[in-house]
Each structure stands twice: as C-alpha cells, then as structure tokens.
Amino acid sequence: MDLDDTLIPDRSAAWAAVEATLHSLGVARASERVQSVFDIARSCWRAGPYFESLKGLGISSWEALWADLTLASVPEAGGWGLRYRLEVWGDVLRTAGAVAEADREDAARQFVRHRQELVRCLPGAAEFVERMARDHEVWLMTNGASRLQRLKLSLSGLDQYVARVFVSSEVGHAKPHPRFFEAVSDALLDDQAVCLVVGDSLDGDVRPALDRGWPAVHLPCTRVSLIGDVVPPCSHRADAS
C-alpha cells in the first residue's frame, strides 16, 4: 500500500499546516499567502545543493519543511535541511513584512507542530488496513524521507498493522522507478506471489503493479477525470471504506 494521499492526507494537510502557521504568526491575509509559501519552498528547494539527489529519492519541497533529512545516501542533507527550513520561512516572513530572526525560527517550529497534529487517517483507511492485516501481510511502499515516513506511520496508528515498510530513501530509488518495485518483488516469499497494490497514483502505484502482473486498486477514483490519460484496467474506489 501507498501511504501519502492514500491512507493519510499529504498535500491538503501541508496546505492546512501552512495556513495555520501563518495565522499563528499573525500574518495578514494568511489564507491568501499559502500558495506563495509553496512557491518559495519550491524555489529554495530547486536551488539547493542536493535537489537532484533528494528528488531521485522522492522527497518533496513541502515535506522537507518538517522532515528529518538525515539520510545514509546523502549524509550532508540533514544539516542543510534545517537551514532550508529557515531560509524558506525567512523569505516568507520578509515578503509579509516581518524580518526578525526569531520569527523564522518560530515559524519553522510552528509548522512542524501543526503538520504533526494533522497526521490522521483518511476516511475508512484505518479500518481497511486492519481488515487486510487479519488475513494478509500488509506492506507499505512510500516515497519520502525515511524518518518522516515512519513518523507518519506511527502518528497515524497504522504501524501496528504493517508488517514491512519500503521507503524510497532506504531503497535508493523512488516510485515508479523499476528498482523500487524490484526491491519489493525480491522480498516476496514463494507463497507470496500475488501482491495487491493500493495507491493514489496511476503512474507511481497502479501502472508499475500491473506491469508486474499484480492486481491494483486506485484511490481516489475522483482524480481519474483530472489525469487526461488512458486509465489502466484496475479497480477504482472513492475511499478505502
């Protein structure tokens, strides 16, 4: 199973956490400034020295605002990640008219707090995973920084049902890279030849599964109309209930 935007909200939670942070800092017209925070983060992220390496590991600019980027494959990224957070929030606050050094540090801390508070399961997800775990082994396949993805799993309470976790930063490649799915395939035992894949991304989850002959479920099906592409023959569900 995929994690972000399949079992727990990711993009919407990041948006809500940014808005809550701006409000808590007293930034005027906070709701109108949310998109600019993502734009600034993306710009700083792409200008950073480890952009290509971290992109290849499936780590996004908005997740790096609260992720521990301590990675075995990119050891220098941990310290840089902390500076990245301050750079982003410093630029955001300067744009909003605040320049105090303490403000950007407070903003960085506030965002982490708000983002952690927003880790929760999507409707029906916890019940679905619990049901699956009764008769099957539940494996998680997720892109992102290892410590962050495992933190999300713990905060959501889903860790108790998951037998094995594959994180892109540990595997060394992000979905949909074939080597990510090779790592999963290689871990299957002889009596685990069938692997049902559940995910929100057609390109990152569904198509790689179908290419390997694995059945797949696409969540949420409401996004199919936005893709403008040929939808592969798989099950489409609105939620996990």
What does this structure look like?
The chain is mainly α. It folds into 2 domains: 107 residues, no CATH class; 112 residues, HAD superfamily/HAD-like (Rossmann fold), CATH 3.40.50.1000. 51% of the residues lie in helices and 7% in strands. The protein contains 11 helices and 5 strands, in the order ααααααβαβααβαβαβ. The strands form 2 sheets. The protein has a 3-stranded parallel sheet, covered by helices on one side. The protein has a two-stranded parallel sheet with strand order 1-2. α1 crosses α2. The longest helix has 19 residues. The two termini are 15 Å apart. About 5% of the residues have low confidence.
Topology (elements, then pairings):
Blueprint: H1 11-24, H2 30-47, H3 51-56, H4 77-95, H5 101-117, H6 125-135, E1 139-142, H7 146-156, E2 164-167, H8 168-171, H9 178-187, E3 197-199, H10 202-211, E4 216-218, H11 224-227, E5 235-236
Can you name the CATH architecture of the largest domain? Answer: 3-Layer(aba) Sandwich
Q: Quick one: overall form?
A: globular
When the domains are counted, the total is 2
Number of helices: 11
Provide the β-strand percentage band: 5-15%
Q: Specify the helix fraction band.
A: 40-55%
Task: Report the CATH C-level class of the largest domain.
Answer: Alpha Beta
Report the uncertain regions.
221-231
Q: CATH homologous superfamily of the largest domain? A: HAD superfamily/HAD-like
What is the terminal separation in angstroms? 15 Å
Q: Please, what is the average pLDDT? A: 89
